[in-house]
Amino acid sequence: MLPDGTYTAVIDRIEDGIATLEVDAEDGLAALEIEAAELPAEARTADAVLEITVAESALADLTYEAAETADRASEAQRRFDRLSKRPPRDGDDT
User: Fold this and answer.
1) How confident is the model at residue 93 (pLDDT cuts 50, 70, 90)?
2) Does residue 89 lie within any of the structural domains?
3) 49, 9 in Cβ contact below 8 A?
4) pLDDT (tens digit, 9 = 90+) per residue, 4-56?
5) Is residue 58 part of a domain?
6) Which CATH number do you get for residue 59?
7) In the chain, pLDDT over 90 holds for what percent of residues?
């Protein structure tokens, strides 16, 4: 389990009722598995961003970060759009 504290977590996947969270911890990324039913309904999707609190080596609280989730999705789409454009060829006016 993670040390006590507050962390940013992103839902990596939900399979068979278990949500796997990627948690940005001091020493790198850590994985945390919780029951999907513990998540707010709007957060039960991959890439949802959460703020979690760990106390006494257990998940004590979590909050769905809707604005952060939307910001990250928009940024990912912008990167995808940028990368999906073909670079111009020499002498190509398009």
Assistant:
1) low
2) no
3) yes
4) 999 999 999 999 999 999 998 888 888 999 999 999 999 999 999 999 999 99
5) yes
6) 2.40.50.140
7) 61
Q: Which of 38, 41, 49 is nearest to 11 (CA)?
A: 49
Rounded to whole angstroms, the Cα distance separating 62 from 55 reads 12
User: How many Å apart are CA 88 and CA 82, to the nearest integer?
Assistant: 13
Confidence of residue 87 (pLDDT cuts 50, 70, 90): confident
| 90 within domain boundaries | no
Query: Is pLDDT at 67 greater than 90 in this prediction?
Result: yes
Residue 93 belongs to some domain of the structure: no
Query: Measured between alpha carbons, how far is 64 from 46 in angstroms, rounded to an integer?
Result: 12
Number of domains in the chain: 1
Pairwise CA distance, residues 2 & 23, whole Å: 9
Dihedral sign for Cα 40, 44, 48, 53, please: positive
Q: Which residue segment(s) compose the domain that 45 sits in?
A: 5-84
Distances (CA, A) of 33 to 19, 30, 64: 6, 10, 16
